[in-house]
Each structure stands twice: as structure tokens, then as C-alpha cells.
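Researcher: For the record, we're logging two predictions in this thread. I'll number them. Prediction 1 follows.
Model: Prediction 1, sequence and structure:
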Amino acid sequence: MKNLPILLPLTFFSFLAFVSITAKLSAQTAYTPSQTYFGTNSYIEYIAGNLPLIISAAHGGDLSPAALPTRNCAACVTVSDANTQELVRAMGESFRKVFGCFPHLIINRLHRRKLDANREIGEAALGNAQAEKAWSEFHQFIDSAKQSVLRQFGRGLYLDMHGHGHDNQRLELGYLLRDDELRLPDDSLNTARYIGFSSVRNLAQISRQIFTHAQLLRGDAALGTMLALRGFPSVPSKQSPFPLANEDYFDGGYNTARHSSYRGGAIDGVQIECNMDGVRDSPQSLRRFSDSIALSLRDFMQLHYRISLPNTCLATSTAIYPLQSANIEIAGLEIFPQPIAHEGFVRIPHQGTQDIIIQIFTVMGSLVQQSVHHSTQSADSFTVIPFSTNALPNGVYMLTVRSRFPDAGNTALGSRLLADYFRTALVLITH
């Protein structure tokens, strides 16, 4: 039988407490993006967002109030995930800095010895009423964030951030599939059986005409692949499709099962177990990783959900669902249509006489197509440049736009990126 987290029924008194807390939190009908809200005794913190992203930190708290007993049971784990609370806050800051918008952040500020917010309530709180209340508030804040995302965008993504102490210094992305299941061939992972086990079940179903379930886990367009390309080795990914039989790997836990599309709905989920070296070991690492995962999530959301994360607030934006045409618009550069069938277009601010170089790479960095277009003086504010994709197989590619000015020569140093504009985007080609 599949060994997945089981959502156990609450005890009668725990259920009454949960209903009471739910009613109180539900009275808060509107949360203001970027504003912070606290649960009872400030044990749980919710920073409201306006993006289709929900990020939680269940094991990064450091509060150890004497009023709460220390958890002590045979199955209890009481070691905290160092710097994961700080990591989630840094991720929120990266999104604010890059996009001017905010993901939803939910943080358990209690130490894991007092509350484990990634377990069912019995093991999480061991019957203590205050701990049970904090547990209920943690999950209710996530539920409120999910409702906000669904109202605004129709679907979204939930990330449960953790830290692991395994020797292999890489990110472990958990989709509720065991390591031996990830070692199965693609044909097996693409069956209804394993899609039904998956925390990205909703995405696998809505994108099946373009991406298979296996491709979402470890293909060109997988989140792990995007993170690895930015310098953060990940499993599963195209670079590391699955853990080897003797390697440690966390496949996801209670939160991922409870709040992802594994149990239905349109919010997909991933548990990300972060290694220490280069990710959680210093404030500089936290910032670098947070900036990188923000850009990776930008690409992931654009490619799979057709939701752009521009430099303007998305409070009034509406999601464009997959399989429909959509433009990529990031800081003045526009690529359309998306997906591209036979011909695409790049629209850039006009900068006078220049050569525009459009390069298309595989996601592994191999140049497969290049074209140069001469742009002359024009009264128009923007230049629209066509490019053909007929010679390229279906797939995901990186498209880079560069400008070369006549007085710069033809050397590599003479080419420069369009100043102050984003120049590389993931594009999908499907004929």
C-alpha cells in the first residue's frame, strides 16, 4: 500500500477547538497584502500576499514558552530546521524586490520541541490545548491563503520549506512519490495511478496535452531543473532524475498532502528540503537562493499556469489557464504568442539604430538557433521582431535577446544586453 501521510481524524475536543478557531479566523474576511497577522500569543505568523504562491515554514521557529510542554513521544522529532524561518522571509523579500508583489507566508514561530506543524494534530501537539490551538491557526492561515489565491487566480502553488541534514548537498523536492517510485520509467509515472499519488496532480491533469507528469517532475520544464540551472542541484530534475537506492531523500509530508492537489483542488504543492551549504549557511546564501528561486518560480508559473509575475502588482490580475495563448511580459520585454507554433515575436523598447540578436538555447545551454535583425531610427516607441521556430522540435527553450550597436563591432564584447530589461525567458514551442 502507498505509504503517504494520513490525515487522521481529530479527537472530539480537538475538533471543537478547531471549529472555534476557524470561526474566529474566518471573521477576518480580508487580509491586506504585505501586512502581518498573528495567531494567539503570536505563535503563528501570517504575512498576506497577492501572488498565486503560498510558502510555509513549519519547523523553523525558535520560541520555547514554558507554558507549553516539551513534546515527548516515540515518534516525535524535536530538531528544528535551522534558518528556514529566515529563508521564507528572504523569499518574500526577493519577490517584493523583483516583482513588487508578495507571496503568502505562513510561519510557525514555535520551536519544534513545542509544536510540529507538519504532523497530524495528535503527534503535533500531544493533546496540549494551547499547542493544538497554534496548530489549528497555522493550517487555517494556509487555508485562508488558498482561498485568496483561488478567488484571484483560479489556481496556484504551495511550497512547504524545510531543511535537511543529509550528506548530499542538494535540494530535495518532494511530490509525495517515494524514491523507488521516482526510479520508475516515465511511462509508469504517467499513469493515473502515480498521478493520483502526486502533489502536482492538478497540474499534471490540466497540462497533459503539453507536459506529461514525468516531465513536470524531471523534464526540461521541471522546477528542480530550473533551480539546478541556476546553480542549486536538485532531485528530481533533468540533471538528477531520481535518488539512487542508497541516497537519503524526503518525499513530502503531512502539509504537502493536506494542502496540495493530492487531495483534490487547484492548488499544487511541493515540499522543498534545503541543504545547508550555499542555501541556509549565511545571510548571503539565503539572499542568493531566495533571488534564484523567485526567478525560477517566475519561469515555472509563466510556463505552466500562464501567470506572469511582472514588476507591477498583480492584485487585479487574472490567470490565463494553460493551452491558451499568452504573452510573456517582464520589465518591458514582450514575447508572444505563448506557446509558439511556427513564428514568434519579440517586442522591445526602441533604442535607435542597432542590431537585435535573438538566440534560442536548450535548457541545458546549447545554442540551437540565432538570428540577427537590423533596427533603424524610428518614431515608434517599440520594435517588433519576428522569428521562426519551424526548424525546432517541440519543447522548452531559453530565448535570449541582445542588442549590438553599429559602433561596437562584431566581437562578443561588442554585444551587450538590452540595458535595464529582462532578456532571457523560457518559451514553449509546440507545432
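Researcher: Logged. Prediction 2.
Model: Prediction 2, sequence and structure:
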Amino acid sequence: MIPREIGYREFVILMASLIAMVALSIDAMLPALLDIGKDLDAADPNDPQLVIGLFFLGLAFAQVIYGPLSDSFGRRRLIFVGLGIYLLGSALCLVSESLPVLIAGRVIQGIGAAGPRIVANAVIRDKYSGRTMASVMSVIMSVFIVVPVFAPLIGQGIIALSGWRAIFWFFALLAIGAMLWTAVRLPETLPPEKRKPLRFGTVFAAMREVVTTRQSFGCTLCMGMVFASFLAFLSTAPQILGEAYELGEWFPLTFSCLAAGIGFTSAINSKLVLKYGMQRMASIGIGVIIGASLGFALWSVVIGMPPLGIALLWLACSAGSIGIVFGNLNAMAMEPLGHIAGVGAAVIGSISSLISVTVGSLIARSYDGTALPVAMGYVICGGAALLALRWAASQRVRRVQP
């Protein structure tokens, strides 16, 4: 059965749902990290962070595979493959009796989740380009941000009813639902005449084009550094808010409020980017992250651990700025790559994820009972991201000069 042409609103919601599987797979697990560490006898209090960090490892390595395959075999088929692998990872996590086995299942989940995420980006690029694409990406972000707003609360509710393992039943059911929705409603956006043969030389040439295009590669580096600091916060959020600030059962609700800020700023960005442009909006967002984090870090060093209100203000500014930064950076990175959208999305996602996993994990592992390491991570990574963005944009400006 060939699906009828999907409407704009349903398209946005479906793409947001596929991309949001990554956010769901992370944020629903956050309330469970402390329980997982206790139930599976983690040797180090920071070891359960790997449940978050190594999910991104699988995500990073797999993305570069899905892109070329989707350029050769079409978008829909690779969405189904990714969701199937995600189901296998969920099953392994469900039956795990040790932390290493659980982490292995999370890596497999990450490999599977990479399919819907990367192929959805390519589908969007098939249909839109330029500032319109940036606006669509921001709208999608504002829609799928509902997931991280409610995911920690859902995870906490599932834990209260059936324990943390039941979260993986929840993941499996959602993956099956996404398969059915895609099969029934999403038409193929890459017709056979536009597909590229799967040859190593062709794929390598496309990868080389991505990493040698300054705008694409610079924005990819920028995304990796910004998300590295955010990943460090995600990995340590239960420890910072749940233990250091003693929020306990209030942690999921607090995290949900912070996530709502990302959705709010994404919706604003979808309008402002059409007037001010992608580069300016991304620069503003990164600048806010650096300023807020530097202020928090200085308070921590000079006065001591800031009160909860100051910590929440810092986190709200930093998280809200993510909603401004990511839609613009992704659109800027993909803009020159319309002719190789699948490989482009894959390489961009893979490189940025590898950077974020490597740097973010180092920051998270330095957690010492305070939020200072994460704040310093935001400052340092934000500075590096701003330099990468300026470097990327310099070539972009020269290209439009007569």
C-alpha cells in the first residue's frame, strides 16, 4: 500500500516523534539512574551515568551507516530497520541482570534510534531548504520537546507502578507504534531516480565533501561542543538536582520545567530566525549559555555552592538557549548538502555525537558532589562552539559576496 500524501501538521508531528525517540530514551531513564545503580550493584556512584552516555555512543557510530543506506535504498526502509534494532536493544535491557549487560542493551538501543533520527532529518531536507527548513526544524523541536517535558514524569510513574525495568516495555510499545504510523502514513520522499548506488568510493567522496565544506563541518563541531556540555548535565542531573540539592521526588518535575523552556525558546526561534537569520540567533544562544554558566561558576568558587534558586536560573538560561541553538546549527550544517542529504545528515550527526559523548562523559565523570564541573564545562565548550561557529560563518559570508 502506498500512503497518500501526508499533510504538513501530521508530517511535523511524525518527524518530531521519530527524532524524539532519542530524547525519550534518555529522559525517561533519568529518574531510574539512582535505582539502577543500587539494584545492579554499581561499583562507582558515577557508573550509572553510562546508561545515558553510552546510548549516545551507539547513536554516534550508527548514524554514518544509516545515511548512505537511505540514499541508496530509500528513507522508509531504513526507518523500519532502525526501529527493529531499537526493539532488540529494549529486550536486552529488559532482561539484564548486571550493569554491563544493561549498558550493552543501551548501546544497541542507540544504534537503533540513530535510524529514525538521521533518516527523518534527510526526509525533512528532501522536502525543505534554507530558512524555511530552519523554521520547520524549530517547529519540530517545539513539538517534540513535549517528550522531554513529560518523559521524566512518565519514567517516575512507571517506576512507581512496576519498577524501572518496565520502562523498556514502554519503549518497545512506542517503537512498534512508530513502525505502524510510518508504514501507513509516510510516503517515500526519495524517488528511485534520485538514489545513489551504494559504493564505498561514492560514500567516501560524500563524507569528504561534508568534512571539507567549512559551513557544514564548522557547524557540526559547534553542535558537538554545545551538546557535550548539555550531555554532561543530563548524565549528572539526578545527582545534582536529586542529591546535591536534595530535590528527591521533585527532580522529574523540575527537569520537566527546564525542558519546557527549550520548547518555548524553539517556538520563538522559528519566528525570529526568519527575520534575523540562523547565525545571529545561534550566536545569541551560545552567548547566553556562556554568560549564565560563567556567573554560576564564579559564585561557586568565590562564595560557595549557590542556592537552589540561582542553580535553577542558570539551568533555565542554559537549557532555554539550547532551543535557539540546535535548530539553527542543524539547518546551517545541512544547507549546502541537499544533493547528499542522507550522508550529510549521517556524518553531521555522527561527528557531533562522538564529540559530545567524549567531551561530555569526561565532564560528567568529574562530578564531585557540586555543579561546578558542569558549569565550567558549559563555559569551556561554549567558548569552543562560538569559535567554531565564527569559523564556519566566515566562509558562508564570503560565498555570498559578489
